[in-house]
């Protein structure tokens, strides 16, 4: 398990480089490009959502947070089965919300724009708007825990899934809702595999310490 956890950490470190580059470059490229096209209203809507998105998503996540707290309490009381039963729907709702946010933003942007010109800045801007709240919340959680958090892993793979979906739209004309969704869904599923590995490693380390 320790070797797998180390491998997962290496994978995260390797993936963080292209994700950081994308997160740094995409807002500037998309914003400048949209400004050149005169899409100032779209830029304004995106900036406004960047401010209210965290609040809106936090409200939507309240059921998952309540279930997660109940799962943590169950685990502290020694009820592993109860913790799992409570944690699964909490995780499923969080992942659905993250995936749906990005998928619909990209799908909506592609189908609402004027395709006589380039659609690339619209999709890039949609990804920036959709992923920024998740990136922000993951950063705050990581700063609080001073460790690799579940939110950080999920946000990183969410960005990776969006990049893969963007490439699919760009090079393979994958523009249907499900075609946009499946790379994001696969990326999120991989994130949960890594989260599970980290959780098992932390649980084993805690057990060894208590012993």
Describe the overall structure.
89% of the residues lie in helices and 0% in strands. With 211 residues, it is mostly helical. Helix 5 (120-145) runs antiparallel to helix 6. The chain is elongated, with a radius of gyration of 19 Å. The protein starts with a helix and ends with a helix.
CA-atom Rg in angstroms: 19 Å
- Given helix and strand content, the structural type is mainly alpha
- Write the H/E string, N to C: HHHHHHH
The percent of residues in helical segments reads: over 70%
Residue share in β-strands: under 5%
How is the biggest beta sheet arranged? none
- The pLDDT mean sits at 80
Amino- and carboxy-terminal Cα gap: 18 Å
Residue stretches low in confidence (pLDDT < 50, at least 5 long) are none
List keywords for this structure.
mainly alpha; 89% helix; 211 residues; elongated
Summarize the structure.
This protein has 211 residues and is mostly helical. It contains seven helices and no strands.
